[in-house]
Amino acid sequence: MSMNLPARANVFRILGAISFLVAIAFFAGIYLNTNSGIMLIVAAVIGGYMAMNIGANDVANNVGPAVGSKALTMGGAIILAAIFEASGALIAGGEVVSTIKKSIIDPGLIPNSDTFIWLMLAALLAGAIWLNIATSVGAPVSTTHSTVGGVLGAGIAAGGFDIANWGTMGKIAASWIISPVMGGGIAAAFLYLIKRTITYQSDLIAATKKMLPVLVILMTWACSSYLILKGLKKIWKTDLFTALGIGLVIALIIYWLLRPVVAKSADGLPNEKASVNRLFNLPLIFAAAMLSFAHGANDVANAVGPLAAINDAITSGGIVSKASIPLWVMMIGALGIALGLALYGPRLIRSVGSEITELDQMRAFCIAMAAAITVIIASQLGLPVSSTHIAVGGVFGVGFLREYLKTNYASMLEDIRSHHQGQGKDHIDTLIAEFERATVEEKARIVKEIKKQGKQSGLTKSERKKLRKVVKSNLVKRSMFYKIITAWVVTVPASGLMAAMLYFMIRGMMLP
Fold first, then answer.
1. With left for phi above 0 and alpha for psi between -120 and 50, is residue 257 left, alpha or beta?
2. pTM
3. Which of 218, 256, 369, 444 is the most buried (most CB within 10 A)?
C-alpha cells in the first residue's frame, strides 16, 4: 500500500534531517583528527541537531507575520529567511563566543575539562530536545532560554546549586514578562497610529501617500540601528548614538527614494483597505530580511556556542570564558538553521502568522517594528529580552488591540440603537450609516452626546457593562495564547531538568 502525501512528506523530512546529521558525523570523523575524536563527533552531531531545531522554531518569528499577511508565500519566506539567516551567521556571526551563555553559572566551580565537556553536551542536547518538543506541538519558544535552562540544569548537576548565578536567572525570568509586554505594547501603538492616520480617514490613498513614507523612515531607522547594534556587533561594535545616526542617514536615503515610488504606486488604486495593505508589502519584506540577518548573526551562538566550547576544551584541554569559532562549526550552525527552517519551519511559521490572530500587511509591519525597537530599548537598559517573546508578544498586542477596538465600536453602535429605541428601524439604520461615515472626531462627539443623555434613554451603567460583554469579540485564539504562555514558563525548568538527567547519563557512561 502506497503512503499518502503527508506521510511521504514526513518521511522525506526525517530522512533529510538524518542525512544532514550523518554527513556531519562523516565530516567530523574524517576532517577532525583529535585524541578525543568520538566526543567531538558526537558534539558536532548534537550541534547540527540543535541548529536544525533553531531553524524549525525560532526563525518563524521573523517571517511568520509576513506569511500570515500574505506579503510572502511560504516558499518565498523560507528562501528569504534561509539566505539571510545563513548570511548573518557566516558574515557577522563573529570569531569567538561566550562558553557560558549569559554567565549563568560560575566556570570556576567546574572541576576539570572532562566535566565541562559533559556539561556542555548535556546542555546542548537538552536545549535541542526541548525545541523539538515545542516545535512538534506548534509552540514558539526562546532558543536562548532553552540553552540557558540546559546550561543551568547541567551546571547544577555538575557543581551543585552554588554554581548558579541566581541574580542573572532572576533577570532572565523577568524577561518572560518584559519581552512580550514591550513587544505587544509597541506593536499595538503603531497599529493604532496607522488606524488613526490611514484606515480611519475617508481618503485612504491620500492618507497612505502621506504616512507610508514616514512609517518607512521609522521602520528603516529602527531596523538599520537594530542590525548595527545586534547583527553586526561581533564584527563591528559601536555605541547607541552612532548606530542611531547611521540608521537615520540610511532611513532618510530610503525615504527620498521611496516617496515618489509610493505616490506613483498609489495612483489609480481603489480607495479601500486592500489597496493600502498592498503598499505595505515591500517595506514588510525588507524588514523580514533585515531581522533574519540580525537573528542569524546574533542567535547562531545558541547552536554553535556549546559546540565551540566543547571543541576548544578538547583541543586545549582547559576551560575558557570565550572560545574561538572554527569555520566548520559556524557552517554547521548556518546550514543546520537553513535546513531546519526548510524541513520543519512551516509548522511554526503558520502558528505565528495565522493561528494566533488574523494578520494583514499593516499589522505584520507593526510587529516587525516592535521587534526592532524593543531589542534596541531593552539592550540599552540592560534588560535580557527574547526575540521570540517580543515577536509573539507583538502578534498578541495587535490582536488584543483589534479586540478592544472592535468591541468598543460594536458597543458604540449598540449605544446608538438603544438611545433611539422606538424611532423606527429605517431611522436607526440611517443614523448608524451616518455614524460609520463620520470622522474619528465626529464619532467621539456623537458618543459623548449619547453618554450625556444616557439617563434620559434609560441606559444605566450596569446595562452598558452587560452590553459590552454581549458585543465582545475574541480575535485572539485563546487556546494558542494559553499554550504559548505555558511553553514559555516551563522552557527553562524543562530543559534544565532534561540537561541534569542527561549529564548524569553521560557522566555514568564516560567514567571508568
1. alpha
2. 0.86
3. 369
Q: What is the pLDDT of residues 396-449, one digit of tens each?
A: 999 999 988 888 777 777 777 766 666 666 666 776 676 666 666 676 677 677
SS3 361: helix
Amino acid at 347: R
Considering the domain boundaries, does residue 464 fall inside one?
no
Whether residue 435 is contained in a domain is answered as no
How many CA atoms, within 13 angstroms, populate the side-chain half-sphere of residue 238?
A: 18
Contact between 116 and 110 under an 8 Å Cβ cutoff? The reply is yes
Hey, is 258 helix, strand or coil? helix
Among 40-49, 194-203, 293-302, 492-501, which stretch is predicted with the lowest mean pLDDT? 293-302
Torsion sign across C-alpha atoms 453, 455, 457, 460: positive
Distances (CA, A) of 425 to 428, 432, 436: 5, 10, 16
pLDDT at 1 over 70: no
The gap between the terminal CA atoms of the chain, to the nearest Å, is 49
Q: For the ranges 33-47, 374-388, 431-445, 496-510, which has the lowest average pLDDT? A: 431-445
Question: Cα 387 vs. chain centroid, distance in angstroms?
Answer: 5
Torsion angle, CA of 341/342/345/346, rounded to 10 degrees? 160
- Residue 419, all three cell numbers: 438611545
Nearest CA to 97 out of 321, 335, 270 is that of 321
Domains contained in the chain, number: 1
| Closest among 341, 255, 330, 320 to 78, alpha carbons compared | 341
Using left for φ > 0, alpha for ψ between -120 and 50, and beta otherwise, residue 271 falls in beta
Buried b / exposed e along 89-109 (16+ C-beta atoms within 10 A): bbebbbeebebbbbebbebee
Mean pLDDT of the chain: 84
List pLDDT tens digits, range 359-407: 999 999 999 999 889 888 887 777 767 888 999 999 999 999 998 888 8
> Is residue 463 assigned to a domain?
no
Strand (E) positions, 283-413? Answer: 322-324
Beta-bridge partners for 164: 105
**Range of 113's domain?**
5-403+476-510
Percent of all residues in the chain with a pLDDT value above 90, rounded to a whole number: 41
- Which residue(s) pair with 105 in the sheet? 164
Q: Which amino acid is at 56?
A: A
What CA–CA distance (Å, rounded) separates 59 from 293? 10
Phi, psi torsion values for 323, nearest 5 degrees: -120, 145
Is residue 197 in some structural domain? yes
Q: How far apart are CA 157 and CA 93, in angstroms?
A: 30
